[in-house]
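Annex B. Sample input.
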Amino acid sequence: MKSWIVGNWKLNPASVNAVQALVDDLVEGVDAQGTALQNCHIMVAPSLLHLSQVEDILRTKSAAIKLACQDVSALSAETGAYTGDVSAQQLQDLGVQWAIIGHSERRQYFNEDNDTLLNKMKHCAAQGLGVIFCIGESEADFEAGKTTQVLAEQLTIIANFLQQSEAVDADYIANKLIIAYEPVWAIGTGKVPSVEEVTEVHKFIRERLQSFEATLGKTPVLYGGSVKPENAQDFAASEQINGVLVGGAALKAGSFLDIAKAFSK
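Annex B, continued. Sample output.
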């Protein structure tokens, strides 16, 4: 299985010029690596404002870098009177291939609940957008030993999706779903769980998915939370960790590609 290296740019960079420079550096860096990154899928998730700009650059300069969005409408898969929203249909038409949903920051700041996330997943599936589904426990839950309990509850969305989406074909389930485990207490804090801890959590996630549907046992499970070039090789050594969802380190092409190289080995 190829590793997935996904850069979540969040509310960055601040200008179109900075976006241009970052994407140009990424394209140049990927080209320079040649076959060194052949064991990785490289993906970036710009802000909604910059999606069109990044898509245009990648379409003309690099088919090797995939494009994801950071959010998608829960209200409609197509069009409608939903001011400020962007639908899965609009994103797919633009050339976006994947959507990040369930990120802890969306759950925290926008109060996104299970019903909202289930709607987003259904809309992505209806338009053929792949889903990077984020799960993770708070520091209080971690310290209380409730990690698996919290993750099991969050993963019920996958089970509900399978039950309520009879029209979704096996190919979509097998190729358009990625799970990203991001302990909330490790995102942007510098606190990092051990590789052994993450490995055990990923085993639990995989077993839970497999209990919903046998083919989900092969679903890529990524780690996210203060991932840097300095610790990427440690995470890459675990067979249970199929890649990473990178935040701050994705805003510099050099550090992002160093992480990719660690997983490509």
